[in-house]
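Justification of computing resources. Each target in the renewal requires a structure prediction run like the one illustrated here; the chain below, 279 residues long, is used simply to show the kind of job we budget for.
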Amino acid sequence: MKAVARWARAEWGPLYEAVRAPVAHRRWRAVPMTLGAVCLTSLTQVVQNRPWGYGPVQAVGAVRAEDPLRLALLRTPLSLFVPALDLPVWGALAQILLVFGVAELCLGWWRTLVIAYAATLAGTLYARVGIALGPAGPFGLPAADAAIVDTGPSAAVVGLAVFLGWRYRAYVTAGAVIVAMVVEVLLKDNLAGKEHLAAIAAVLVLCAVAETRGRARGPGRPARGARGAAGARRRRGTRGGTGSRLRHGGRPATKPRGRRTAHAPATDRVPGFRPSDRA
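Resulting structure tokens:
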């Protein structure tokens, strides 16, 4: 049991520490983007299940491989928050709340969105490539998949999970996600499963780019933003302000004299008192 606990701390300890501090200080205010995504997903689910709302949601958020590329790219941002009609909506909401929330706490809201959209866009573009390859190859898709509506946050969730596992050295967790997606494709060869693999491939490219940049920065050079307020205070203290720097060959500043002696002449400069001055 202790070995399992040690493994859990080694695997998820850094990720837990990154999540614990913002949650303890700000609670739900620490994940505004995630809460907005949950509300937007719930709203689109309610609207698309109404007779008057299905058409507008499909017009602005439904992506198909047979659509023109420009139209698909315009619909891709909202398609992430349109749940699939054949899947329970609570699954999409749970995925967004958990994975998007952890990612926002660890990476920030804009990095989370960039990775999520990169994974979703990779799946969207792969569908066109797979249909062009045809069903004969291992990476191909049948022509009938061009009419399938491709929406939902699953590709973004998978991509974020892999990126977080790489970022916080939870390699076993990231590997388990990848293996699960491969098994999904082997058991059920469909468009969604292969899009998940495309999303993973895109995120692994992002991980490789980030790793290369980290090595190029060098071990002795701190990352951007690593110096906090303490470093800023040290810099201010050595460049004017409260601190003082010694010039080459100079003497340190002495303590200022008191108010009464600040302008008093030195004893060797007081003029002598002559007897003739007494008269």
